[in-house]
């Protein structure tokens, strides 16, 4: 049974114009084997980008928005443009090879800059990006139990992204050592996750999630132009909220105001997860509401609307 | 001929107390082959640490200071303590397998947190760090031609490291996407390298180097407690300067003052490289002085003194 499917992608087709047949697009390999060269820039430098979502009963949640964000990350780190058609076909091949009863395995698309041209092994390479796609039913899967949260500084002022694009704020890179460190800090503090804020007190995002606050009938999330990811699951939640007759809003959101929200939602990987405590303050949540939002997202009901939601449609 | 040597290390011996024979310490593998699993945390998260130096005619420059810094990085990212003896023996085995005429190949020691326990492949693993060591004569090697430099903001205030240890400032992690982005920004601006500074105007370091300024007979470098790496080659240069009767100084160094230095030195990987321009201002340098410093460092003359040099011997 294939509970974990790992496909090595054709970098020239997925990040270039090379047309290849399905047979040459993805090579399925043993997930437990050795499949990456030690001089790959993913290994040596975390120099690459990725996207992650859930495949629910064969349907890759928000795939198009994930590919658009992958394209944005690629532009920010000077990688070639992703070929949406080739990557989508690759994702389909990986999904086709999956046959575990688990309905919601995790999908990840990983792209590195290829072999490091500053090493002897990479020097002669043609700088083709390394691409691989996996589907995994056996790792940690999402749960919708409410989680506790602490706020922590990200260390940057809110205007830094415009002034210093080399910080790559807003690109989803493979350099996640900081994000991992925040989660270890959460474990030390005995909380489930963290929400980051700027030195001047504005809400950013969680280490691998977006944050949405609810005030009455209005759902609010930080404007991504502050230097955070443009949330894919967050846009699905916004689409659901709008379908339910609520208002949605992108803006600069003071962390002090976030702490006073009526409800808080953490969104990532195709899921909405309720937050029941922030910085020690208890928050109300509705398991029914969460179940309805996730059901709408996983069934594809919110997909089309989510494609046109954004702060000012720049994303 | 072995111009590139890649050895996969025994993680239980190198990051634990397991005693193993030399035969079980390092496994030499084909550098051009597949040698890493795709679910390794180096690949997926840049979640690991490393050190890099030059092996000059068989002598690994500053190895003990590199291992001390590796231990400091390990502590900062909650990895087990490195076993200096096992890693040193592993480095020796890799050096023994090298037989290219190039006298100064690059050595790198790479450590990741192992397979990702949040994936199906990593879930059952025992969280042994992945370790590999390579020696490479065929990649980009150091040169001592003078380079031009531009200063850029790091986005952080100078007091952030103490307040937010989860930023991992001062740890040498595998998450180098930012460092790579700074180098691409340098290429766009037509300069050789960058020196970073804090939002309140204090000098930090270069993306993969330390910076040393000379004012008369005093060599000055930023105090690492500001949240930068404790430079290994920088300490070798300080040891040389002191042997030559000069003064050395660690302190908070305003970027404005750096720009007014008599001379500037970039140090990394066992080398001192002169800077001949910063932010458009031309700087004097002496090729003789640079050659003498590098000769002293590569011959091991500065090694012992460099071990006891530091801002206040905390490092």
Automatic annotation (TrEMBL), chains A, B:
Keyword annotations of the record: Lyase
Keyword Lyase: yes
SUPFAM superfamilies attached to this UniProt entry: D-aminoacid aminotransferase-like PLP-dependent enzymes
One of the protein's GO biological processes: carboxylic acid biosynthetic process
Single GO term (MF): lyase activity
Family annotation (NCBIfam families): PRK07849.1-3
Family (UniProt): Belongs to the class-IV pyridoxal-phosphate-dependent aminotransferase family.
PANTHER family: AMINO-ACID AMINOTRANSFERASE, AMINODEOXYCHORISMATE LYASE
Protein name: 4-amino-4-deoxychorismate lyase
């Amino acid at each position: 049974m294939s509970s974990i499917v790992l496909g090595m992608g054709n970098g020239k087709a997925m990040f270039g114009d090379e047309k290849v047949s399905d047979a040459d697009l993805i090579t399925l390999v043993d997930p437990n084997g050795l499949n990456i060269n030690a001089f790959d820039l993913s290994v040596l430098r975390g120099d690459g980008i990725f996207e992650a979502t859930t495949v629910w009963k064969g349907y890759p949640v928000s795939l198009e928005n994930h590919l658009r964000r992958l394209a944005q990350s690629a532009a920010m780190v000077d990688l070639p443009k992703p070929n949406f058609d080739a990557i989508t076909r690759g994702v389909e091949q990986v999904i086709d090879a999956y046959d575990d009863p688990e309905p919601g395995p995790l999908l990840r698309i990983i792209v590195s800059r290829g072999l490091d041209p500053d090493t002897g092994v990479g020097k002669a390479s043609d700088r083709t990006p390394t691409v691989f796609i996996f589907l995994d039913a056996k790792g940690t899967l999402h749960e919708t139990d409410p989680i506790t949260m602490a706020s922590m500084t990200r260390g940057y002022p809110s205007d830094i992204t415009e002034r210093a694009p080399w910080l790559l704020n807003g690109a989803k890179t493979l350099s996640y050592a900081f994000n991992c460190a925040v989660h270890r800090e959460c474990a030390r503090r005995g909380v489930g996750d963290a929400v980051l804020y700027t030195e001047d007190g504005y809400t950013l995002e969680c280490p691998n999630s977006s944050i949405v606050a609810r005030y009455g009938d209005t759902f609010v999330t930080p404007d991504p132009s502050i230097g955070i990811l443009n949330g894919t699951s967050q846009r699905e939640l916004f689409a659901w909220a709008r379908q339910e007759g609520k208002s949605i809003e992108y803006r600069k959101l003071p962390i002090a105001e976030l702490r006073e929200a009526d409800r808080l939602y953490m969104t990532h990987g195709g899921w909405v997860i309720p937050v029941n405590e922030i910085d020690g303050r208890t928050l109300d949540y509705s398991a029914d509401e969460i179940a309805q939002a996730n059901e709408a997202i996983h069934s594809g009901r919110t997909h089309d609307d989510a494609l046109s939601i954004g702060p000012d449609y720049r994303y």
